[in-house]
C-alpha cells in the first residue's frame, strides 16, 4: 500500500510538471510580435510575384491549420495537448516546410545525445573520482589544489570556454574546423572521422565545466561523510583507508550524485545549446536557435517539449529506483 501511494504521488508530480512546462512554452512563442504564417506567405509572394487574393486567403487558412494556429488560443492549446504532447505530432516545420518537425528533430537529436551524453558521463566519472580523493583526503596539499582548480573552472560560462577553444585551436592553430563540417559523401569511416573531429572542441568545452561541478559537489559530500561516526569507528577497528574510502565514504556519497546525474542526463539539451550555436554543431540546440529567429512555433514546441518530458521522466525514474539504491529509504 505504501508503494502504491508513493508511486501515484510521483506519477502525479511527473504529469503536473510536464503539463505546467509545456503550457508555458505553448503560450510564450505566441507573444512574439511576428506571425509565422504571414512571414511564410510574404516569402512566397516575394518569390512568385502577385498571388490571387482568394488563393492567398485559402493558403493562409490551410497554413494556420497545419501550424496549429487556427481557432482561439484555448482551441489551439487543446489541439497541442492532444497531438503534440500525447502523440508527439507537432506538424510541419516553417523552416523546412512541409517536412514534419519530428522528422527534423529525429535527424538532429542523435548528434545532441551523442555529444551531451558522452561528455556528461565522462565528467561525472572523472569529477566524482577526483572529488572523492579531494574530500577523503582534504587536508593534503594535492586535494586543496584540485579543489582550487575546480572552483576556478566551474563559474566560467560555457560560451566563453567554447570561444577560447575555437579561437586558439581552430582559428590560430587550425587543428580543428571553426564551424562543424560533416562529409556527406564518401565512406562511413570518412563521415565518422569528420564527426569526431568536429566534436572534439565542443566536447572539451562541456567536459571541462561539467567536471568542475562534479569535483566540487563530490568533494563536499565526501568530506562530510568522512567525518561521520561510522567512518571514525571503522578507523578504530583498523580497517584500511582504501576500504574505508571505497566501501564507506564513496557508497554513501555517491547516492546524491546519482540523482544529480539523472537530472543532468534528462537536461542534455540545456548545456549543449550555446556550445552547438558557437560551433555550428547540427544538434537540437541549433534547431531551437533557428526556430526562434524564424518564429517557427512548431519547432520550438517540439524541441522544448521533448526536453521537458526527458527531464521529468529522468527525475521520475530516479525517484522510483532510489529506495532500491539506498536501503535506508522506505516508501511512505
What report would you give on this structure?
The protein is an all-alpha fold and 332 residues long. Helix content is 77%, strand content 0%. It has 13 helices and no strands. Helix 5 crosses helix 8 and helix 12 packs antiparallel against helix 13. The chain is globular.
List the helices and strands and how they pair.
Blueprint: H1 2-27, H2 36-48, H3 53-66, H4 73-87, H5 101-136, H6 141-153, H7 158-172, H8 188-225, H9 229-236, H10 241-266, H11 268-279, H12 284-293, H13 297-325
Helical segment count = 13
Choose one word for the global shape: globular
Return residue spans where pLDDT drops below 50 for at least 5 consecutive residues.
none
The major sheet is characterized as: none
What gyration radius follows from the Cα positions, in whole Å?
25 Å
End-to-end separation in angstroms reads: 9 Å
The ordered H/E elements are: HHHHHHHHHHHHH
Structural class: mainly alpha
Number of strands: 0
Rounded mean pLDDT is 77
Q: Provide the helix percentage.
A: over 70%
Strand content: under 5%
Compose a concise summary of this entry.
Helices cover 77% and strands 0% of the residues.
Feature tags:
332 residues; mainly alpha; 77% helix; globular
Amino acid at each position: 500500500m505504501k508503494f502504491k501511494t508513493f508511486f501515484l504521488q510521483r506519477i502525479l508530480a511527473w504529469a503536473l510538471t510536464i503539463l505546467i512546462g509545456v503550457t508555458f512554452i505553448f503560450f510564450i512563442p505566441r507573444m512574439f510580435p511576428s506571425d509565422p504564417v504571414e512571414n511564410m506567405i510574404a516569402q512566397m509572394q516575394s518569390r512568385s510575384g502577385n498571388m490571387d487574393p482568394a488563393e492567398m486567403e485559402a493558403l493562409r487558412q490551410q497554413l494556420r491549420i497545419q501550424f496549429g494556429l487556427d481557432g482561439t488560443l484555448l482551441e489551439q492549446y487543446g489541439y497541442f495537448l492532444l497531438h503534440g504532447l500525447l502523440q508527439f505530432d507537432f506538424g510541419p516545420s516553417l523552416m523546412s516546410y512541409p517536412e514534419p518537425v519530428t522528422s527534423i528533430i529525429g535527424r538532429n537529436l542523435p548528434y545532441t545525445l551523442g555529444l551531451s551524453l558522452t561528455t556528461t558521463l565522462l565528467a561525472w566519472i572523472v569529477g566524482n573520482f577526483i572529488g572523492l580523493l579531494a574530500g577523503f583526503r582534504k587536508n593534503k596539499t594535492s586535494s586543496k589544489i584540485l579543489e582550487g582548480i575546480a572552483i576556478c573552472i566551474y563559474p566560467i560560462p560555457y560560451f566563453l570556454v567554447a570561444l577560447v577553444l575555437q579561437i586558439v585551436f581552430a582559428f590560430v592553430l587550425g587543428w580543428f574546423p571553426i564551424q562543424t563540417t560533416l562529409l556527406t559523401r564518401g565512406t562511413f569511416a570518412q563521415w565518422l572521422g569528420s564527426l569526431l573531429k568536429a566534436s572534439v572542441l565542443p566536447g572539451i568545452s562541456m567536459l571541462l565545466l561539467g567536471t568542475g561541478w562534479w569535483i566540487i559537489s563530490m568533494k563536499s559530500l565526501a568530506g562530510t561523510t568522512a567525518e561521520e561516526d561510522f567512518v571514525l569507528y571503522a578507523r578504530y577497528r583498523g580497517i584500511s583507508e582504501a576500504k574505508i574510502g571505497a566501501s564507506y565514504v564513496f557508497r554513501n556519497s555517491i547516492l546524491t550524485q546519482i540523482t544529480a546525474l539523472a537530472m543532468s542526463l534528462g537536461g542534455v539539451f540545456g548545456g549543449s545549446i550555446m556550445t552547438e550555436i558557437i560551433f555550428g554543431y547540427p544538434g537540437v540546440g541549433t534547431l531551437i536557435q533557428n526556430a526562434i529567429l524564424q518564429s517557427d512555433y512548431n519547432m520550438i514546441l517540439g524541441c522544448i517539449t521533448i526536453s521537458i518530458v526527458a527531464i521529468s521522466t529522468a527525475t521520475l525514474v530516479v525517484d522510483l529506483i532510489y529506495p532500491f539504491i539506498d536501503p535506508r529509504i522506505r516508501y511512505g
